[in-house]
Amino acid sequence: MKTVIFLGDSITDAGRSRENETRTGFGYPTLVRGEIGFDYPEQYIFYNRGTCGDRVVDLYARIKNDVINMKPDILSILIGVNDAWIDIYKQNGVSADKYFKIYDMLIEEIKEALPEIKIMIMEPFTLKTAEVEDHWEELQSEVHKRAEKAKEIAEKYQLPFIALQEKFDEAAKFTPNNYWLKDGVHPSTAGHELIKREWIIAFKKIID
């Protein structure tokens, strides 16, 4: 049985249990588990290591425990919104350049320890809602900068890049933005389904 690990912030965490590995939260990791578990019975086991509030530096601090020691076959990473968000609201984020530097170190060290691992890089995203309206232009700009850096990481290591911002923009053309992202950052159930569908497309390409 192959192991899949989800790494990220609260979007990935989505209320997962710290005591029971089978309770992977209400978000896209659980939706993925359902579809992959149905299509590929008993072939994959999933672990959610998303943690609320995480920035790329927090992922890096825990790579040995959350990734390397677990020796996954597939690693999925979604990180970047907090690097921008926390900088704007609490002045404790991670600049775009440092985000790239730490992300680069993260991938390099994981690949060095686990040369056969397959890694999927997901694009951070946001939409304008009342909760982020006061700082919208800055938030949009800063999240976009991290998204570009995440894409650069994927290109540098020739990894799949799951583009999500354009998908959310397209989905929100005919609905209020908060239908998809409740507060401009955290997905609704429909938003998690959107992420899951894009994740599944990328996943099936790397296992074929």
Give the amount of beta strand, in percent. Answer: 5-15%
Helix share, percent: 40-55%
SSE string, helix = H, strand = E? EHHEHHEHHEHEHH
Rg calculated over all Cα atoms: 16 Å
Q: Uncertain regions: pLDDT < 50 for 5+ in a row?
A: none
CATH architecture: 3-Layer(aba) Sandwich
Count of domain modules: 1
The fold-level CATH name is Rossmann fold
Content-based structural category: alpha/beta
CATH superfamily caption: SGNH hydrolase
User: What can be said about the biggest beta sheet?
Assistant: 5 strands, parallel
Distance between the termini: 16 Å
In which order are the strands of the major sheet placed?
2-1-3-4-5
Helical run tally: 9
By CATH reckoning, the class would read Alpha Beta
DSSP summary, beta strand count: 5
- Outline, from the CA principal axes? globular
Roughly what is the average pLDDT, rounded to an integer? 97
Structure commentary:
The structure is a single chain. The protein is an alpha/beta fold. It has one domain (2-207): Rossmann fold (3-Layer(aba) Sandwich), CATH 3.40.50.1110. It is 49% helix and 12% strand. The chain contains nine helices and five strands; from the N terminus they run βααβααβααβαβαα. It has helices at 10-13, 28-39, 56-61, 63-66, 81-90, 96-113, 136-156, 165-171, 189-207; strands spanning 2-8, 44-48, 74-78, 118-122, 161-162. The chain has a five-stranded parallel β-sheet with strand order 2-1-3-4-5. β4 (118-122), α7 (136-156) and β5 (161-162) form a beta-alpha-beta unit. α2 packs across α9, α5 runs antiparallel to α7 and α6 (96-113) runs parallel beside α7. The radius of gyration is 16 Å and the shape is globular.
